[in-house]
C-alpha cells in the first residue's frame, strides 16, 4: 500500500492558496493510486515547538526530566516516523517574508536528523531519505523567477530544494502559484493554473 504524508503550513486556513493546491495534489493521487493511505498533519494548527538547547541535549543522551519536554520529544519522534514511512510527501508551503513559514521550519528540524535522514562520512554528508517522491505546493505573492528583479529574494523554493537534496531526496517537484498578491485576477489565474498542473500529475 502506498502511503502519502500531507503537510500544510499556511496560517490562512481555507483562504490559503497553498492549502488549496496541496489538497488538489492529494486529490489527484487519490484518483490515480488505488488504496492510497493518507496521513495529514497541519503544522500551523498544531505547531511543533522550535528547537532549543534542551532538545539538543536530549538528542545527545541527556535524561528527560520535564514531562513537557518528554511530550515534545515524543511528538518530534512521531513526525520523523511519519516522514520515514511515507512513499509520497505533499507539502503546502507559502512564502512568508521571502522564505518558508516558521512552523514548516520547525517540522523540517524534526526530520533532518543525523543518523536517520542524513549522515556524515569520509566523503562528506550523505542523504538517507532517498526513494521518496516529494511534491511541494508553493504560493508566492509576487514573481521570483530567475529572470525577474526579485530573483535574489527567493528563499522558499531554493531552501526546500537544498534541504531535501541534503537528506537524499532526488524526486522533488514544485507546483507553484505565483503573483497571488498582485490582485484578485492574478490570484485566480495563478490558483487555476496550479490546480490544473496538480490535476495532470502522474502516479
UniProtKB/TrEMBL annotation:
EC top class, as a word: oxidoreductase
Residues the entry annotates as binding FMN: 10, 16-18, 95-98, 139-142
Pfam families with a match to the protein in the record: Flavodoxin_2 (PF02525)
SUPFAM superfamilies per the UniProt record, alphabetical: Flavoproteins
Keyword NAD: yes
Cofactor entry: FMN
Gene3D superfamilies: 3.40.50.360
Keyword tags: Flavoprotein, FMN, NAD, Oxidoreductase
Start and end residues of each Flavodoxin-like fold domain: 3-197
Signal peptide: none
Family of this protein: Belongs to the azoreductase type 1 family.
PANTHER family named in the record: FMN-DEPENDENT NADH-AZOREDUCTASE 1, FMN-DEPENDENT NADH:QUINONE OXIDOREDUCTASE
Protein name: FMN dependent NADH:quinone oxidoreductase
Natural source organism: Bradyrhizobium aeschynomenes
Chain's gene name: azoR
Amino acid at each position: 500500500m502506498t502511503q502519502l504524508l500531507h503537510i500544510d503550513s499556511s496560517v490562512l486556513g481555507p483562504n490559503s492558496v497553498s492549502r488549496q493546491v496541496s489538497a488538489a495534489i492529494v486529490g489527484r493521487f487519490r484518483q490515480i493510486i488505488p488504496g492510497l493511505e493518507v496521513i495529514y498533519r497541519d503544522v500551523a494548527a498544531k505547531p511543533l515547538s522550535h528547537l532549543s538547547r534542551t532538545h539538543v541535549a536530549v538528542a545527545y543522551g541527556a535524561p528527560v526530566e520535564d514531562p513537557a519536554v518528554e511530550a515534545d520529544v515524543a511528538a518530534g519522534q512521531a513526525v520523523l516516523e511519519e516522514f520515514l514511512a511515507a512513499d509520497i510527501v505533499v507539502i503546502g508551503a507559502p512564502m512568508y517574508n521571502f522564505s518558508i513559514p516558521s512552523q514548516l521550519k520547525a517540522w523540517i528540524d524534526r526530520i533532518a536528523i543525523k543518523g536517520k535522514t542524513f549522515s556524515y562520512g569520509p566523503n562528506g554528508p550523505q542523504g538517507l531519505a532517498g526513494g521518496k517522491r516529494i511534491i511541494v505546493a508553493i504560493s508566492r505573492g509576487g514573481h521570483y523567477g530567475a529572470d525577474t528583479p526579485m530573483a535574489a529574494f527567493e528563499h522558499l523554493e531554493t531552501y526546500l530544494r537544498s534541504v531535501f537534496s541534503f537528506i537524499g531526496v532526488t524526486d522533488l517537484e514544485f507546483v507553484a502559484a505565483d503573483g497571488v498578491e498582485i490582485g484578485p485576477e492574478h490570484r485566480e489565474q495563478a490558483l487555476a493554473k496550479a490546480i490544473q498542473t496538480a490535476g495532470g500529475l502522474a502516479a
